[in-house]
Input
Amino acid sequence: NLSLKLDRAFKTLKGTGKITEINVATTVKEIRRALIDADVNYKVAKEVTDKIKDEAMGRDVLISVSPGQLLVKITQEELTKLMGGSKVDIKLSGDPAVILISGLQGSGKTTFTGKLGAFLKKNGRQVLLVACDIYRPAAIDQLKVLGEQIGVEVYSEPENKNALQIANNAIAHAKKTGKKTVIVDTAGRLAVDEQMMQEIEQLKKALNPSETLFVVDSMTGQDAVNTAKTFDERLDFDGVVLTKLDGDTRGGAAISIRHVVNKPIKFISTGEKMENLDIFHPDRMAQRILGMGDVISLVERAQQAFDEDEAKRINAKIRQNNFNFDDFLSQLEQVKKMGNIKDLMGMIPGMGKAMKGLDIDDDSFKPIEAIIRSMTPKERQQPDIINGSRRKRIADGSGRNITEVNNLMKQFDDMRKLMKQMNKMGGAKQALGRMM
Ligand code: GDP
Ligand code: MG
Output
């Protein structure tokens, strides 16, 4: 399972605050293995992970994200870029606009022809489907059934054995009946063969389609890439349709194909039903390939939770020199929720320094928490009132010794001093800014 493998890969990084060559190497190797398992071609996987490594090296770890999580993000970003960055729409120009469907037999051309018809109809276009698979009589019926299902007319000439003639007649028919889009379904062989190639080449030359799509079964892995290459050399198609991405197909083929032919993937097909069609979004596919949507959204949630609400509130308190033990406690709670405490310490200004030299893990917060919880609400809000006798009472109440209480008070004091200093510096900078 890919997620598990990546989990293992990222574990290596847990607890380290900065991404360095050493802690990246193992992880990158694991990511590469995971990509290959997801059907990404070996060479491509290597290129991707080399890029990820370059990108990740030396990047400071964001305050609320662990290095492992950051690497996940970088990986996702790189994969997204590799698949073109953002979606690319199909081009519909001409009257009628002609869309030519190419691909091997069984790749899902006829099914996709129906789906695209339904999709365009939904977008308000008048569509005509054309059955140009002249070799299999059943293919015409298959398209007719789909056409009926989606309420779109299907043009066919069962007796005619000339695909180009049929297509030309269909276009004439579309003009006559006011159809603005013609989708031409074609024949395919089980493997690339010369006759089929010549036929589709001829169709493309004669019909001058505004969009030629290459349909490919994503489950065929490396074969899909080779077929794409062959078709592109002959047809110079405009876009790719990836089919059979339902089930647990990872979709690594998307990266390989994009990489090899450098043509955008425009649609993905995720089932046999007419509604199982999606516009291709590189970012979503990257997420799918990594199989770690959960991790990514978790990272994002963590960032949000920290950045927005709490950080704003705490920053306001710091600016007013008003940071107290309640705030301290709430920060500790947040930090604990996020895990990977060392990386998160920097979130609290001054905290990193105050805690320096301490070996920090979840348990090292327990005594601190116990001490703070033994303070009265008033003591937490106004730490200055905590005198000697109060310290003794707090130590007894929390089951810690007086030295620990004193240490915490000292650390907290240092922290507040630093915060004050930062405020002054910020104030000076602002004043300078106003003068300039
Ligand atoms: P063609 O020979 O290229 O026209 O391929 P078809 O459209 O006839 O599809 C071949 C088989 O694949 C049919 O049984 C389809 O129902 C099935 N199929 C097509 N697209 C998908 C898909 O996205 N997912 C699944 N599971 N099956 C599909
Ligand atoms: Mg077919």
Summary: Residues 109-110, 133, 139 surround magnesium ion (ligand 2) (CB under 6 Å).
